[in-house]
Amino acid sequence: MTTWKRIRHHLTRKTRRTTGRHGAAALGLACVMVVFTAAPGSAGSGGPPAAPDPYFPLAGNQGYDVDHYDLDLDFTPATDLLVARAAIKAEARRDLTRFTLDFSGPAVERVVVDGRSAAFSRDGQELTIVPAGKIRAGRDFTVTVWYRGTAAPIDDPALGVYGWINTDDGAVALNEPDGARSWYPVNDDVRDKATYTFRITAPAGLTALANGEPQGKPRTVGDRTTAVWSMRKPMSSYLSMVAIGRFTVTDGRVGRLPNITAYDPAGDGDDAALHRTTADAVRWGQERIGRYPFDSTGGIIDRIDVGYALETQARPVYDGEPDEATIVHEIAHQWYGNSVTPKTWADLWLNEGFATYAEWLWQEERGGPTAQSVFDQLWATPANDDFWHLKTADPGRDELFNYNAVYLRGAMALHALRTTIGDRDFFTLLKVWADKYRYDNADTRDLMNLARAISHDNVKPLFDAWLYTAAKPATPQG
Ligand SMILES: [Zn+2]
């Protein structure tokens, strides 16, 4: 995500804070406990810990692991009606007599598990499903959910507007952090990556885009057109995306990689600049970081007033004409965030610090200010300034997108690491980090261990001072 505008948005929204959130958090823990007591036992050894994300305790279910989402979405902009079917293929990690999906979207009409009707109930964002028979640990199963109605975005007092957003001529779905549940039933845990197929039907004349690559040309039957897209590489649910509306599409290539960009012709966007800069940023990333992790790239400019751009997998979405730095930032996320994804939201700096530092490197290499000069300017911020008042690795749920703590201080921490271990080891680290944890999840400790292994330096004090302390480090090296 790029947040210059987002931060302003975020700050103006702060006045709407209420005390209600604490009540909601307590309720969340209660619901999680219900799920655990209904399905006791451990997830077995080797897997991630069977615990919800501390920032989003209601999201995700550790009792199963999703392999693939097949989403069939029929959308009518004139009425905002969404008629949908989600077929989710998963593997049980323990015996399941019941399980939950995260879903706060339209009315559920029917649920089927492995071809047999299943009982279901809804409570807040939990869709609880009781299959006709117990699903044994280790078994694959498919749950299919039919639903129909109007989907709406999540409007969070601290985090802004995200999820399914109806627009003048269509809709766009931007999920970070927990908005996927607004438009499809999901195991909304950043660690449960899956592949996706999107089958999107809309009135003829509109264009539907999603993550990944198109499967053939769109097909029109009567006055409705269906487009099919697939994401064949593992994807966290917060990075899934669809965009429906009037779009002008440019279908090109960066080397052998398809580069599909689109913009809403009713806006003042310039698709040529988006297309070209996206290609440049991908080439640059391939040189600096290594093999591009997905099977296509691109970008979408839509006229939505959310105040941010989002790095949706293989095809970021921009809420207006992006500048070059913003495109570089979102493309850098394809490696840092989308391919290598944090294990928990507290470690979001691993996305935003790296993507912000990519902007600094990009401009440094093009005769702009050096990363050192950007660092020096920020370092001059007095120790008693709010700039230093949160922990970069664990800023708190409501400060997840805090630009100073997560983005700028995240990038500063990387620069401090660079000056400590030296350019050669640092640029090796940038590549090995993306390669070692490709399509996987990693945390701050994993980065520290890798930096130590590559440099043979004791980087722990630096990590402690820059990432785990809510204060200005004593020296630039920590
Ligand atoms: Zn970002």
Automatic annotation (TrEMBL):
<dbReference type="InterPro" id="IPR042097">
    <property type="entry name" value="Aminopeptidase_N-like_N_sf"/>
</dbReference>
<keyword id="KW-0031">Aminopeptidase</keyword>
<feature type="domain" description="Peptidase M1 membrane alanine aminopeptidase">
    <location>
        <begin position="324"/>
        <end position="466"/>
    </location>
</feature>
<dbReference type="InterPro" id="IPR027268">
    <property type="entry name" value="Peptidase_M4/M1_CTD_sf"/>
</dbReference>
<protein>
    <recommendedName>
        <fullName>Aminopeptidase N</fullName>
        <ecNumber>3.4.11.2</ecNumber>
    </recommendedName>
</protein>
<dbReference type="InterPro" id="IPR001930">
    <property type="entry name" value="Peptidase_M1"/>
</dbReference>
<keyword id="KW-0645">Protease</keyword>
<keyword id="KW-0862">Zinc</keyword>
<keyword id="KW-0482">Metalloprotease</keyword>
<keyword id="KW-0479">Metal-binding</keyword>
<comment type="similarity">
    <text>Belongs to the peptidase M1 family.</text>
</comment>
<dbReference type="InterPro" id="IPR050344">
    <property type="entry name" value="Peptidase_M1_aminopeptidases"/>
</dbReference>
<dbReference type="Pfam" id="PF01433">
    <property type="entry name" value="Peptidase_M1"/>
</dbReference>
<keyword id="KW-0378">Hydrolase</keyword>
<dbReference type="GO" id="GO:0004177">
    <property type="term" value="F:aminopeptidase activity"/>
</dbReference>
<dbReference type="InterPro" id="IPR045357">
    <property type="entry name" value="Aminopeptidase_N-like_N"/>
</dbReference>
<dbReference type="InterPro" id="IPR014782">
    <property type="entry name" value="Peptidase_M1_dom"/>
</dbReference>
<keyword id="KW-0732">Signal</keyword>
<dbReference type="Pfam" id="PF17900">
    <property type="entry name" value="Peptidase_M1_N"/>
</dbReference>
<feature type="signal peptide">
    <location>
        <begin position="1"/>
        <end position="38"/>
    </location>
</feature>
<feature type="domain" description="Aminopeptidase N-like N-terminal">
    <location>
        <begin position="67"/>
        <end position="239"/>
    </location>
</feature>
